[in-house]
Amino acid sequence: MEAYDTKMEEAVNPMEGSDSKMEETVNPMKASDNISNLKSVRGIVTYLCTDYGWINESIFFNTDMVCGNVPLNIGTSVIALVEENETTHIQKAIKVKTVTNPVDGTEQSDLDRELCIKSVTSVTQDSIYIDKETSFPVHLFSEEFMPCKGDLLLVEYSMKPGTSNMNIHTVSPLRSQNMDEVCITSTDGKTGVVESCIFFTVDSLQKPSDYTPGLYDIVNVVAVDSIQPHCSWRAVSMIPVEMCIDQAL
Questions:
Q1: What average pLDDT does the chain have?
Q2: Dihedral angle at the C-alpha atoms of 21, 24, 25, 27, nearest 10 degrees?
Q3: How far apart are CA 66 and CA 74, in angstroms?
């Protein structure tokens, strides 16, 4: 996704003073606490094991939190979205992204970038809005993931010096997860819920053209973090398990 300039109402840190619904983020199957304490931190990987590591010797992270599953090494420059436990003051990264070291003569490097979480507040035919003033063109997203209202997005951005312009570099779902052999527990017209926590709407669902989701169907879904009524996930694709079995035979 190419960088995209957008105008902010005020020259503020996007984690503060936004009109977008940023009251909460979510962990798998469970809503989390207020995300206002999340901060963007740049640093280097100082310790690394198979499934976890440390940034700047003080920020813990699990390797499955690394964007794009990019291999890390000790000394790799990263940018991380970090939360701090209010009781223990232990810092943990909920997202880690590798960055490129600055090159001589380059006006703005990857090290100028920050990370924040935004919630989609509205969707039009041409744009995805994360607050009243900030939007992305719909064509920047692929058919595999088209954001809907309530979806939580990880936004990589930089601020142009001396202006209130936000330069958007990448936008992606905060998290996505494959969930196999789960049950549709309720349906209501073109909407429904899987396992009582994964919301879906037929109109925004990637699915076989000859399949209509039905109550108690067992399905495989791909879901993204999303703030929906009584749900913390939204299914973006769904395939009935019976079709998967038939295709395997």
A1: 78
A2: -150
A3: 14
Q: Length of the chain in residues, anyone? A: 249
Q: How far apart are CA 60 and CA 54, in angstroms?
A: 5
Supply 59's token pair.
């920020």
> Does the CA dihedral 32-33-34-40 come out positive or negative?
negative
* pLDDT tens readout for residues 100-148: 665 444 445 555 788 888 889 999 989 999 888 788 888 878 777 899 9
Tokens matching residue 232? 């913390």
Single-letter code of the amino acid located at 121: T
Q: 65 phi and psi, to 5 degrees?
A: -90, 0
Q: Quote the tokens at residue 180.
A: 């196999």
pLDDT for residue 102? 53
17 dihedral zone (left: phi>0; alpha: psi -120 to 50; beta): left
Tokens of 79: 């940018």
Distances (CA, A) of 108 to 50, 161, 168: 33, 10, 13
Query: Which one has a higher pLDDT value, 30 or 80?
Result: 80
Share of the chain above pLDDT 90, in %: 38
Question: In a 3-state reduction of DSSP, which class is residue 90?
Answer: coil
Tokens 């395997």, residue located: 248
Residue 157's pLDDT is what?
A: 84
Q: What's the distance, Cα to Cα, between the start and end of the chain in Å?
A: 38
Distance of CA 161 to the CA centre of its chain: 26
Residue 36 pLDDT exceeds 60:
no
Alpha helices in the chain (DSSP H): 241-248
